[in-house]
Structures are given as C-alpha cells and as structure tokens.
C-alpha cells in the first residue's frame, strides 16, 4: 500500500475514534492530510502468480531480405555405383530414306583380268617327255588352256597359281611343271605294288603375255605311271591371282 493509502486509512481511524471523544475537543483531522506519525505495518507475503495470458496474434510477415552471397563450391562427392542395365526399349520407327547418291562410273576391264582353268586326264599317258594332254575340261571359260597341245598360254600378265594332283599306278612317275621350255618344279613318286599313289605339286609363277605353262613326264618310258580311269582322276589347274599394275 502506498503512503496516500496509508494516510487515508489513518484518517478513517481517527474519525472513528473522534466520534467517541468529548465535546470541545480538538476538531478531527482531515483524512486527506498526510499522516506524519503513521508507522508502516509489516510487509505482506507476495501474491500468487497469475494465470498465463492468452497467446497474442501472429505478427505480420517481415520484409523480404536481400539475396545473400553465393557460398563456396563444395568438394566433389564420391562416384556412385553403376546401376543395372535397364530393359531394352521398344524399336524406333524407321527413318526417312536418304537422298539417292550419284551413279558411279563404270569400272574398266572388270572381266579382262579373269584367267583360270581346271582339266583332267581321260586315260593313261602314253609318252614321256612331251606335254600331257588333259582333255577332260572342268573349267576353261577364257580358253586360255589349249586342249590340243596341253599348254596354258598367258593372256593377262601377272601372278599365277598352278597345282596338279596325279594318280600313280603300276609304275613310278616323274613329273615336271614347265614354263617356257624350262622345268621349274619336279615331283617323283615311287610306286608301291598293290597300291595306288598320288603325286602332287603347286607353285606361284609370274607370267608375261604369251608365256606358256604345262606338265610332262620325264625320263624313260618305264617312269610313266601317271594314270586315270572312271574312279581315279589326275588333274591340272591354274588361275590368275592378280594382274600387273600396268594392265588395263
């Protein structure tokens, strides 16, 4: 209680007491006058806390702040594991056809560089030291092998491959492959009684136009076991591998 309240309380007490006094006594003091002789009482105990007040209303949103500066770039993280392959997607639609290209120029000499033959025997070779006549023709489209002479005549200069596989029966056989009257390959087969042997050979040769290649048995007549019948073939073949660069 403040001083003004205490003085008011003191005045009320005096008025009450004054009503009980004698006439002629001093008039009652003014309750509004300060009480100089009032002694304060002992302080009271603090009051209990009041109940919590209700929450106030939400305040208004503040103004948008300025954009902050960009932070430093962080360290690169570890690479993740490779995921499993996904399912195959559906097939796409066909694309539009492209523009047709220009027609190419016709090649020169596409068929000029062909040269090949494959021939065989029709019976025993009767004479040694002469070209063997292979009269059974398997392939001779360019007619570069002459069945009347038994010789192949070069029409396209270049590198050629020649091979022969001959049946040997009843006697030994000595065979030579000739190029231009010179033997370049020799094969000898010694006949074994009650047996049918094979004599074979192959070679690469460069030929110029007009050069000839053939096979023949060399030696005496006893060395003439080259043989052929309806179940045993003796064959001779050759073909052009590639022509010379200046051939057109």
From TrEMBL:
Residues 54-76 have a biased composition (Basic and acidic residues). Pfam families: C1q, Collagen. Residues 1-23 form the signal peptide. It is found in: Secreted. Keywords: Collagen, Hydroxylation, Secreted, Signal. Residues 25-100 are annotated as: Disordered. GO terms for cellular component: collagen trimer; extracellular region. Residues 110-247 form the C1q domain. It comes from the Eukaryota. Coiled coil: none annotated. This is Adiponectin, C1Q and collagen domain containing.
